[in-house]
């Protein structure tokens, strides 16, 4: 038990040290070579922009976080639900899955102006763009996980006259959870990209909107700070998915 607890702590310490080393090297390189701030600001100059009240960092970060989390949550719910429907109704999968593949090939940047026309400006169209980008990997990986169940287990449940719900709850769902969380980890990354795509196209708030505003004045420190905050939002969402995976997959495996 002690060794198992020490290993994650050691891994986290290594990750933290590497990140801190990169920040130190960044600061030293900028200072040593006198790199202009508008080309590459130092970490200290980047953090100092948080004191600029006109940028409304808190409000803009909150808007982007809502868009990311909303798009990801919608993608996870719709993706998993459709995968379950496809596993229960192969005919529905045969009809709809190729359509979803075709729709997924549409560049999401091209959907942005259409979403603006249909839903106007605001958080909703950006949530939908994030959803449109992140839900497809969740759908595919979950559908694959529901299909790749041990045939012997399926035959056993059927021989015991188990219902479809029992088959799903006892066999398919637990077996597909690693696939579900694999798709959710990819979806978490894509949700961040989707929200920013929406804000770049047309928005009135958010970190992407702020980056567009400060670009004209070459306020590179503010742009870098926005990128850092976006990265932190993505890391937080990814960490949440990892925690859920550890709870439902790793935890169950240890209990069994």
From TrEMBL:
Main location: membrane
Organism domain of life: Bacteria
ABC transmembrane type-1 domain location: 61-242
A Pfam short name: BPD_transp_1
Keyword Lipid metabolism (UniProt): no
Gene Ontology annotations for the cellular component aspect, listed alphabetically: plasma membrane
Location relative to the cell: Cell membrane
Transmembrane segments: 12-35, 55-74, 81-103, 115-140, 179-202, 222-244
UniProt xrefs under InterPro entries: MetI-like, MetI-like_sf
Membrane topology note: Multi-pass membrane protein
Family designation: Belongs to the binding-protein-dependent transport system permease family.
Protein name per Swiss-Prot or TrEMBL: ABC transporter permease
Organism, scientific name: Bradyrhizobium zhengyangense
Lineage of origin: Bacteria, Pseudomonadati, Pseudomonadota, Alphaproteobacteria, Hyphomicrobiales
């Amino acid at each position: 038990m002690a060794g198992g607890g020490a290993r994650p702590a050691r891994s986290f310490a290594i990750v933290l040290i590497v990140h801190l080393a990169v920040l130190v090297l960044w600061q030293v390189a900028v200072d040593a070579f006198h790199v202009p701030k508008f080309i590459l600001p130092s970490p200290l100059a980047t953090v100092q922009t948080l004191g600029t009240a006109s940028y409304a960092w808190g409000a803009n970060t909150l808007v982007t976080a809502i868009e990311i989390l909303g798009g990801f949550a919608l993608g996870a719910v719709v993706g998993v639900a459709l995968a379950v429907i496809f596993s229960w109704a192969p005919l529905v999968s045969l009809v709809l899955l190729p359509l979803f593949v075709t729709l997924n090939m549409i560049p999401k940047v091209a959907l942005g102006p259409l979403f603006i026309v249909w839903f106007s400006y605001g958080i909703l169209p950006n949530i939908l763009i994030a959803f449109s980008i992140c839900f497809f990997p969740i759908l595919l990986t979950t559908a694959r996980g529901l299909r790749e169940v041990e045939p012997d287990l399926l035959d056993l449940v059927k021989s015991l006259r188990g219902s479809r719900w029992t088959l799903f709850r006892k066999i398919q769902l637990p077996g597909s959870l690693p696939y579900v969380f694999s798709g959710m980890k990819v979806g978490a990354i894509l949700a961040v990209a989707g929200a920013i795509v929406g804000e770049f196209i047309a928005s009135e708030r958010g970190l992407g909107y702020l980056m567009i505003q400060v670009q004209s004045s070459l306020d590179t420190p503010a742009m870098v700070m926005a990128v850092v905050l976006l990265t932190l939002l993505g890391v937080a969402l990814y960490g949440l998915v990892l925690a859920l995976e550890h709870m439902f997959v790793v935890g169950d495996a240890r209990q069994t």
